[in-house]
Every structure is written in C-alpha cells, then in structure tokens.
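[job 4471] stage=fold_predict status=RUNNING
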Amino acid sequence: MRFIVALASLTLISGALAADPKPDATVKSKSIEANVYLDDRIKADPALAADCLAEGRKWIDEQAAESAAARKQEPDLFKDRGGYSFERKYSVRSIIDSHYVSILRDDYMDTLGAHPNTDVDTILWDAAAKKRISIRPFFTETADNGPTMKAMLKAVIASLTAEKKKRAEGEPIAPNWHDGLKPSLLKIGAVTLAPSTEAGKSSGLTFHYPPYALGAYVEGQYLAFVPWETLKPYLSPEGAKIFGGARPKADTDDQQ
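[job 4471] inference complete, writing structure tokens
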C-alpha cells in the first residue's frame, strides 16, 4: 500500500512539473516578472533555439526597462497591485519538406490595466539555410497590390468573414472591420504554413490575428485559412513542391 501511495505521489509531482516548465529566459524584479519559453521541437534545432532565445531575451529586457521606469512614475500603482507580468512562448506549428519550420510566437502582457492582453506573431525558419525567411520564395511574385497579394487578401477576407458571421450570431458586422488588411506581405497578417494530410506538404496558409486587430477585445484572436489550391496559379516551382493535400480536421478545430 505504501508503495502505491508513494507511486501516486510521484505521479502527481511529475504531472505538476510537466505542467509548469522552467522558463528558458527570465527576468524578475519588484516591477516585473517576465519569462520566455521554447518548445522541445525548437530546442532540437540549436540554431533555431539560439535565434528565438536571443529575440526573447531582448524582448523581456526591454519590458523590464519600461516597467522600472513606470514604477518610478507611478509607485502607488505597483505598491497596490504588484508588478507587470509578461510571457512569451515559441512553439512549432508545422515542419514542411523537412526544413521549413513555421513557429507561433504568443505573448501575454499584464501592465496593470483594465485587463491583460495577448499578441501573436509568426516566424518562418529555413532549417537548411539556418535563417528566417518569408513566404516570397513560394510564389512567382509578391509585389504590393500585385495579382498574388490581391488573390491572397480576397481569400483571407472571405475566410475571416465566415468566422466573423459565426461569432456575431446574427448581429450586424461593422463594414470596415478589415480596412487594416492590405494586399502586401507586411500588412496582410502574420502567416504560417498549415499542416497537411499529405506528409511533408502544406495544405495552405494560415493567417493569425491578435485581439483588437479585427474587432473588439472580447472577440479574441482570429485565424484565416487559405487553401493552396486558391493560390495555385501564383506558385513558384518551390511552392508547387511544398504544397499539397488537405487541411487536417484537427487543424480546423484550432479556429478560435
């Protein structure tokens, strides 16, 4: 019986440790606690891990400097409510053709305002070249207001409109909600290569939007999926090589 109890205790401890991983970088002071986490698949690539960690450390150092300055300006706020809280998590979303790694960068920020906030951005990593890249190599052209970007934006808005209507539950939708999106790689949204039912391929592009980007904070984050078939006329030879298959159902369930 003692063995069973001890084993159960060890299981509970192991579960707690697994649920509370140690940060890969941290800053803690009277004015802030900030942490950076890398998932195990990122850590498996030393160059990628170093790249993400360098960016993450710079980010929390910047937040620490800003929080220290804010504490000097409003000491009573910090006295009553404690310090700022920041968290950044880097996680692998997909690995395509063995070396194109799509990464989600999720941020949590509590600066003692009305409510915490979150942000999301993405990284596309070329593990062969050991550097960050964009999706440009997958298309014959990606000029601002060019045919590729116009087609991409049209598909993005169609995907987001369907989700907007679902969340609105019959309520009217503001006609200008997508005015901030432009037919430009820098203004269309943070993008990842979506996983596919076909091994080593991507089923298309997923665009990620944080709260406030497309509506009120209470609406939360949005995702827009554009299947590769929609963009087939604009694919480069490299794009034709990496895209294929369909979006897995488990991935569609991730729509928030």
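[job 4471] summary: Confidence is low (pLDDT under 50) at residues 1-17.
[job 4471] exit 0
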